[in-house]
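for the writeup, i need someone to sanity check this before i put it in the appendix. the sequnce is what the collaborator sent (i think, or maybe the updated version? ugh). structure was predicted straight from it, no edits. if anything looks off just tell me and ill rerun, i have time this weekend
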Amino acid sequence: EAILSCKHKFSKGMSLRIEWKKIQSQGVSFVYYSGEFTGDLRGRAEMLNTGIRIRNVTRKDSGTYRCEISAKSEEGQRLGEATITLTVLVAPTTPVCEVPSSAMTGTVVELSCKETEGSPPSEYQWYKNGVALLEKKGTGSARAANITYTMNKKSGTLLFNTVTKNDTGEYFCEASNGIGLSQKCSVKRMQVDDLNVSGIIAAVVFVALVMALCGLGVFYAQKKGYFTKESSSQKKTNYQSTSEK
C-alpha cells in the first residue's frame, strides 16, 4: 500500500471541501471528488482524514497527485493545495535478447537486450561465455584491452563494428534496476566465420562455364543449319499445298 499524506492548518470549525487530482501529460483527472474515489482507485483506496491510502499499488499508480482543500470562513473562501509524487518501484522481468546465430568476419553485428516492466528503467550488462563484458570508456582496462565492441548499458545494445572470429561465443544479457533480483535471458551462441572466397570464385567460374557451353551449343546448331532446315521445310509444305489447290 501507499499513503499520500495531506495536512492542513484550517480550524476544526471550518467547512472543508477536499479534492484529489492526478496530473498527467494528457491533462488533469479527478481521483477523489464529491466524497467518492473515481477511476482505477475506486474500490481500493480510502481516505485517512484528508490523505489517501492506496491498496495493491500498481505501476499505473505512479505519477503526480495534487491535494486541494478549500474552507469557508467569515473572511471568505480559503484554498490550500499540496503536490505529491508517487513512484511505484517494479522489479525487472526477463529481458528479450536478440543474438544472431552466425555472422561473417568484418561485418557489422548488433546484439540487443530489452525489458519494459522495470521501474525505474533497467540497465543492461552483457556476458560472453559467462564473463561480464567491459564497458568501453576513454580510459581504464576496457581501453587497454583493445576492445572492438561498444556496449550501451542504457539501451541494452552490444555493437560490433567489425566482428572477428574471436567474437564467437555464448552470449546472454542481464537486466537490473536495484529493485528485487536481476533477470537474465537464455544463453545464445554466435558463430563468426571467415568469408569463403574460394567457394564464391568456384561458383562464379562454374556459372560462367555453363553459360559458355550453352552459347557454343546454340552457335553449333545455327552453323549446322538446324534452325534453317526447319524453316525451309515449312516453306516447302506451304508451296505444295498451293500447287494442289
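Confidence is low (pLDDT under 50) at residues 139-144, 230-245. The CA atoms of residues 124 and 153 lie 5 Å apart.
thx in advance!!
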